[in-house]
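sorry for the late reply, my laptop died twice this morning and i had to redo everyting from scratch. anyway the thing you sent over, i finally got around to it. pasting the sequence first so we're on the same page, its 496 residues, then the predicted structure underneath. double check i copied it right bc i was rushing
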Amino acid sequence: MAPSKLDSVYRRLLLTRFFDKGWGKPENLQRLFKFRKIISRRETCFPLIPNDYPVEIIKEEKHQDYTILEGQFLTPLELHLPGIVPKPVQDAHFQVVIPRKWKDQYKPICIHLAGTGDHFFWRRRTLIAKPLLKEGNIGAIILENPFYGARKPDNQVRSNLHNVSDIFVMGGCLIMECLVLLHWCERNGFGPLGVTGLSMGGHMASLAATNWPKPIVLVPCLSWSTAATVFTTGVMSQSINWDMLETQYYSDGKYRERLSKMVTIIDDAFTAGQKFMKDFNQSLIELKKDITYTKLLQGTSTLKTSENVIKSNKTIENCKMDKYFNGIGKNDCVTPEATKGKIESSSTLTKLMKYILPTTSRNASHRIDITKTNWWEREALQFMRGMMDECTHLKNFSVPYETSLIIAICAKDDAYVPREGCSSLEEIWPGVEVRYLDAGHVSAHVLHQKLFRSSIIEAFERAKKMHSTRKEDSSGDMNTSKLSYQQLLNKYVNAF
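ok and here's the structure:
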C-alpha cells in the first residue's frame, strides 16, 4: 500500500523538531547501550523492581460512577543509572481511573502510555480510559510520559526532545515504571492487567510487556517491531536536522569509533532497497503529475531525453545499492572520503530522489544535499538506524509470557511507522494477532478509536478466561490480599 499523503502533510504542518542538540553525551549513550542488555531480558530486568516498590497516592477525586486517584514515585532508572535522568523527569506521575463498583469478581486495569505529543492525562482519560470504563468495566492507569507534561524540562519546547539519547532514557524509564505499577496493581487485588498505547506509546507498551513474567494483555496500536524506520524513512525523519547530526558524528570520534561498534542493525536493509527499486518506475509516473517534475527537468531538451538518461543510469545505481546493502551489519563504513570522486556529476536519478524521498527540513539551510552523497550512503543515518534497532527492536527483548493475549492494530498506509524491510510481529512473537486498518497513521488515530477500545476489551476477555482456568492451578501465586474499594482508599489516601 502507498504511504498516506495525509500523514506527510500533517507532519509538515507540525512545528516539532527533534534532536536539535545532537546525539547526546557519548558517555550517557554508552551507559544506556550497556543497560539495554539488562532491561531487555525478563530474567535480569524483573528482579530490579521489588514488589513493594514505594508508590505514593497524593490525590483523590470522587465522581458519580468512577474515582480518580493521582500518584507518583521515583523512576527506578535513576536508581540504576544515577545522573542519566534529568531532574524534572525523575518523578513519575500517574492517574488511576477505576469504577465505583466492579461488575464481577475481576478488577481489570490497563496501563495507557502516551503517543508523541500526548502531554498530561486529559486526552487519554477522555478518549480511551473513560469510554473503556463504560463499555468494558476496565480501569485505567494513565502514566505521564518522561519529558512530557509535568515531567518536561523547562528548556524543552513542546515535544521537541533535545537529544537522541532522550528517546532511550524515555524507554528505559517507561519499561521500569510499568513494572512498578503492575506490582502496585497486584498488591491491591487488581487483575487481569494490561498495557496499551498509540504510536510511540504502542511501541513503549510492547517493550514494557516483555518483562512481566505472567500473562498480560498487550494492545499496541499503530506501532511495529522497531523504531528505526520511524526516524530514518518515515515522515518523522523530516523533523530531524541530519546535517547537524552528521557534523557531530564526524567531529567527535567517540560516536564513530566507539559507539557505532556497540549497535547493530537488526533487519537487512537490502529488502528495503529492492522494494525501492521495484517501485521506482511507478514513482516516476506519479512524479510526472507534479509541477516539481517540470522544474526538475528545466534545461533538458525533451522529456524523452531525460527518461533515456534515467534508463541508462538505472543499472549503475542498482549496482551501487547492492554493494552498500550487502555490507549492512558487517561494520562497513561508507565515509565521504571513500565515496568522493566516484560520481563526477549528479545523475538524474539522484536529483529525482530529492522529490521522492522525504527531506529533513522545510528550511533549505538544513536540508540534506543529496547531490553530495546518496541517501543510503549517509553514515550518520545508518548510525541512527543501528541505535534505534539496538534499543527498540523487539528481537532484542524477551518474548511476552503469553502471546495469545496480544492484539496489535496497524495501519496499512502508515507513513509514520513504515514496515518495509522490518521483521514482522508474527515472526518475532508467534501466536500474536495483528489486525490491519485501511488507513494511514493520522486517519486511523482520528477515526478508529472505537476499534482500539473494542480490541482492548476483547483481549481482556481472553485474559479473564485464562485467569479463571489457571486460578486453581496457581492459587499460591495469586493469593494476594483482596482489598475492598474503601480499604484501598483508606490505605493509599490516608496513609500519606
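The CA atoms of residues 43 and 211 lie 8 Å apart.
thats about all i looked at so far, will dig more tmrw
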